[in-house]
Amino acid sequence: MRKWGVVGLAVLAVAGASGGAWWLWGRGGADAQPMDVGELAGDTIARGVVEAMTVAEAMHEAYPCARLDDAESPAPPTSMTAFGRTFEREGQLLAVSGGDKTLVIGFVADAREPTERTLTNLAGVRAAFEKHKVELVVSLGGMGTSEAQIEASLGALAHNAKWPVVAIPGGRESIPAHTAAIASLSDGGRSVVFDGARVRVIAMDGASIGTLPGIADPSQLIAGNEGCSHGVESLVELATLLGERPAPRVLASYAPPRQSGETASDVAAGHIHIGEDAVARAVAVAKPAVVAHGLVDEAADDPKSGAVQRAAAPPLIVGAGSLDGEPLWLPDGRVLGGSAIVVTVGKNRTTWRRIPVPVGVD
Known about the structure:
Elements: H1 3-26, H2 37-57, H3 68-71, E1 79-82, E2 85-90, E3 93-98, E4 103-108, H4 116-131, E5 136-139, H5 147-158, E6 165-167, H6 175-186, E7 193-195, E8 201-203, E9 208-212, H7 232-243, E10 249-253, E11 267-268, E12 272-273, H8 277-286, E13 290-293, E14 309-310, E15 316-319, E16 328-329, E17 335-336, E18 339-345, E19 350-356
Parallel strand pairs: 3-8, 4-5, 5-6, 6-7, 9-10, 10-13, 13-15
Antiparallel strand pairs: 1-2, 2-3, 4-18, 8-9, 11-12, 14-19, 16-17, 18-19
Helix pairs in contact: 1-2, 4-5, 5-6, 7-8
């Protein structure tokens, strides 16, 4: 809802409440003092407008954090060297230099709350990423709502790690909390975490990666008005920018693109497609080799888990699965654990594997 829509509703709500008070005053007891109806109505409406405007000033829309002009907001440059590469932020661009022309990326999503079991999942995935020589970790979103939650979940992947982490806010993160958690993690040099709402393009010789923060429907944001929403225009703008960069290209999005068919990666419980048309539009414009997304816990239900799979025809669209410590109970009675994915992107070959997380059931 846009701010002036909120103001309008607030005016009506407060004026309505004041009108109700006037009606109750008319039914008051012996101490009630008479008042001219016109004077009372004017006073009521005036107070209602003032109160509504005061309420509205404390309210705002969800953060449009996928807009490129927001991505260009000032932030200190951050850099690190790992795997023979230098990662350096320059505004909305994360420039990667050195190394070969193949990049190994680990994607994670939806830790939600850093419970003991969730932190165990994160530790297991981190060990797997080290085994598979991951060079860059991209958190697709859903890593917590509060600053403490986000910092704990991302910190489990980033503290003293060989790789930098690019953390994209999804449908759960409070943007002020997300920003503060990243600043806290980077303080002291033990972690290098780039904000995926500000770093929008990762550029290197072997691949170009674009980030699509947030979700389309503000009413679904766990953090409410402090969450991150996007419109189709902002996603297409980023996709256009990414499409101008050399292939192969990768889109990293919390929300999946809208798809069709039973094998689509946006199929949730009940065989419902929950992908977004806005993300699908961005995919059509950017023409990526790979789309990695979060949001769909059922994506971990893959009989080929652990196998290296070559992308046949682009785009490969794959869900990371969830790192939530709570198991997922499927309608058919099966219990599903979590997962992450590792994608290896090169000039002529793109492969991926799923990293399964064991089911934890008490």
